[in-house]
Structure formats: structure tokens, C-alpha cells
Write a structure and sequence with these properties.
It contains 13 helices and twelve strands. By secondary structure, the chain is of the alpha+beta class. The chain folds into two domains: 209 residues, Nuclear Transport Factor 2, Chain: A (Roll), CATH 3.10.450; 155 residues, Nuclear Transport Factor 2, Chain: A. α7 crosses α13. The two termini are 40 Å apart.
């Protein structure tokens, strides 16, 4: 890939095919919550609205439609327009023609594939709603706006889907989508739909669905080596921000990376005391919800038992906030390991697996008070099922 040395980041990004995401630096992190979902919706007040009349303060959005005031406004309103106003074709205006979407199953390329998938889902859930629960953002209109959009999908399965006939059951599913956008278009997305949770809520047997999908897989599955490598290195800095741009005092990047490393690679669960408040709230894949260290340690140790050589790397960290008001973070990570232990995923298969996830933290006074963590659990089970065929 060759670029003229005097090109701006925006020119370099958009001239590539497919576009690549420039890594973020410390100066790209918003230091307050003046542009935030809470300010946008007036959360917790009598004036709370999903789409407010006042779209918030203006932010530099070169190349974006003038109707959008800031990146929070953009993410919230395009999501509402596409899914709830049913203007699915608007995806062609808000996703690039050569966009890359890494999802639970693999890599989906181009806005037309996203349009098809969205039409399928709205047919299966005619009353579907995508409710913004939080948006962590960073960046600008030169390197790209990075957003970690935590969403609740609600709806009734009143139409047939790729998983079978309509069940007429309701779903309430956590989703996290990390997007990068420039010039009114999302060109890179890492999204975890928590499919295992959705299927359970629909009344399906995960083992039956896994067996079916591993034999007749969805588009993009299984990932090839290049797709896995691209998923991991997209937007990843050459060096962690905490190393490239060290600071005195509390460093969100250093804290987040150290905590994930200590828990996942070091199997050192003392971090659940040193880095978390005692009654922290957790919400995760496959409807896991709990408070406190004990159930979280059980989850992590069960994964470590199944994959004793699992090695996690942190691919990207960004955040918003400050020491006084606290921080909201997004950490995208990926891991490889071998299924050589019995337990949560059955008898050992010897299969090498790919696991990737997105974690969001709410940090107050240097400690985590809440965590949301999704990973590709249904895909992981499919990888293991395919190895036994």
C-alpha cells in the first residue's frame, strides 16, 4: 500500500481499497461528556427522549450530512432511520460501497450485503427496535470517528428467519458495534450480535442450531487466515497509547490493557479486587448477568480450563471522560487457543479456535463499576462442532 507522504489521514484512508482505519492517539479522546448519549437523550430526566428535538452541540463533521450535529447524533439517528423508520436503503448512504463488517460469523463486504441482512432481520422481527444504551466515541473528521455503540435489540419473532419458522417470542438482546466513519459513511465495523443469547430467547436449542450451522454455514464462515488477521489488526496502533504517549497519573489505556492481560493471560483473579469495586455489575454473552467477583472468576476460569493455552491480545482501546467525572471505555480484543480441557464446551477436541470480543467499562475513581463484555460464543461453539465432524 503506497501513499504520498503529504496526504492527510483522511485522504490516505479513503484512497485505500478497502479503506483502512487510522489508529487513534491520546489527543483523539474526548476529555468530557459534553457530546455524549446521556446529554443527547437527557437520560434520567423528565425530558428524556430517544430522538430529541435538540440534536446537541455542533461538532466538526466535514463530509457528513448537514442535518447531523455531532457523532452521537449521527449514530443514533441513522440507526433509528434504518431500523425503525424502515429506510433500509439509507444504508447505501451511510456505509461505503467497499465497507468491511467483521461480525460473529466472519467478514461481510459492501453495503449491499448489509442491506440484504437488514431486510432479512426486519422481515423476521416486524416490530424491531434498536435502543441505544451507550455510545463511547473518539477521533475526528480526519482520522475518522470511532464509536462503540452498545444497543438493546427488542422485537417479536413474527416472521421466518434463517434460524427457522417464526416463534412469536420476544427478544431483548445486547449488541455492541464498533464503527469507524468518515464523510458520512461507515467503512469499518466490528459487531457482536450476541446470537447465542438471541437463539436461547427464541426457544431454540443451541446445540441443534450449532450442528446445523456448522454443516450449512452462513456467509463468511469459517474465517480464513487473512480475515482473522485483518480483524485483529484493523485500527490497532503500532504501540499502545500508554507506551507511545506516556502520562503521569491514571492512564486509561494502561489500566485497561493491564486488567485484561492479568485476568485472561495471567489467570490472576486478584485483579477482580484491585481493579473493580466489590459489587460491580456485569452483563455479557449468552445472557450472563451478575454482580461481584465470584461469578466472574467462575466464568473466566471455565474458559481458561477449556483453553489452557489461550493468549489474548488487546487490539484497540479508546475512551471518553476524565478523573473527576469518570471514564467510559471500549476495548476490542482477540485471542487464540486450543480446546484441550473439558468443561464449559464439552470434552476436549484439540481444535485451535479464534475468540474475539468487545468490552466496555465504566470506571469511577480508578475502579471498574460496570462491565459489558461480548464475544463470539456461538461462532466458538460452531468451530468446535466442525472439528468433530
Amino acid at each position: 500500500m503506497y501513499f504520498e507522504c503529504n496526504m492527510t489521514w483522511e485522504q490516505k484512508i479513503l484512497s485505500a481499497d478497502p479503506p483502512f482505519a487510522a489508529p487513534l492517539a491520546r489527543e483523539h479522546m474526548p476529555a468530557d461528556y459534553s457530546i455524549s448519549l446521556e446529554k443527547y437523550t437527557n437520560r434520567g430526566t423528565s425530558g428524556e427522549r430517544r430522538i430529541p428535538d435538540d440534536f446537541g452541540p455542533r461538532q466538526s463533521l466535514r463530509g457528513f450530512e448537514q442535518t447531523y450535529h455531532n457523532i452521537i447524533d449521527y449514530i443514533v439517528r441513522i440507526t433509528y432511520r434504518i431500523w425503525e423508520d424502515r429506510d433500509v436503503q439509507y444504508i447505501a448512504d451511510t456505509y461505503s460501497d467497499n465497507s468491511q463488517v467483521f461480525d460473529d460469523y466472519g467478514l461481510q463486504r459492501g453495503c449491499q450485503k448489509i442491506i440484504q441482512d437488514t431486510q432479512h432481520t426486519t422481515s423476521a422481527f416486524s416490530d424491531i427496535k434498536l435502543i441505544a444504551d451507550e455510545i463511547v466515541w473518539a477521533g475526528d473528521d480526519e482520522v475518522g470517528y470511532h464509536t462503540s455503540h452498545r444497543t438493546i435489540i427488542r422485537g417479536t419473532n413474527d416472521g421466518d428467519s434463517k434460524y427457522g419458522p417464526a416463534t412469536n417470542r420476544n427478544i431483548d438482546v445486547l449488541v455492541i458495534a464498533n464503527c469507524v466513519a468518515l464523510d458520512n459513511e461507515i467503512f469499518l465495523e466490528h459487531v457482536l450480535y450476541n446470537n447465542s443469547s438471541m437463539l436461547q430467547q427464541l426457544g431454540h436449542s443451541l446445540s441443534d442450531i450449532v450442528a446445523t450451522l456448522s454443516k450449512s454455514p452462513p456467509a463468511g464462515w469459517p474465517r480464513d487466515a487473512d480475515t482473522w488477521d485483518n480483524l485483529r489488526r484493523a485500527a490497532r496502533p503500532d504501540q499502545p497509547i500508554s507506551i507511545a504517549q506516556p502520562i503521569d497519573g491514571f492512564d486509561v489505556d494502561k489500566f485497561a490493557r493491564a486488567t485484561l492481560h492479568q485476568l485472561w493471560n495471567g489467570r490472576d483473579y486478584s485483579a477482580l479486587s484491585s481493579a473493580y469495586v466489590p459489587d460491580f455489575a456485569f452483563q455479557g454473552a449468552t445472557d450472563r448477568r451478575f454482580r461481584g467477583a465470584a461469578p466472574y472468576q467462575t466464568l473466566l476460569s471455565s474458559i481458561a480450563t477449556a483453553f489452557p493455552d489461550l493468549e489474548l491480545q488487546v487490539d484497540e482501546v479508546y475512551w471518553m471522560g476524565n478523573d473527576k467525572d469518570g471514564y467510559l471505555t471500549s476495548e476490542r480484543w482477540s485471542a487464540e487457543g486450543t480446546h484441550s480441557g473439558a468443561g464449559i464446551y464439552g470434552e476436549p477436541s484439540g481444535k485451535s479456535v479464534q475468540i474475539w470480543g468487545i468490552t466496555q467499562h465504566h470506571i469511577v475513581d480508578g475502579k471498574i463499576v460496570a462491565e459489558w463484555m461480548l464475544f463470539n460464543e456461538l461462532d466458538l461453539m460452531m468451530q468446535l462442532a466442525a472439528s468433530q465432524e
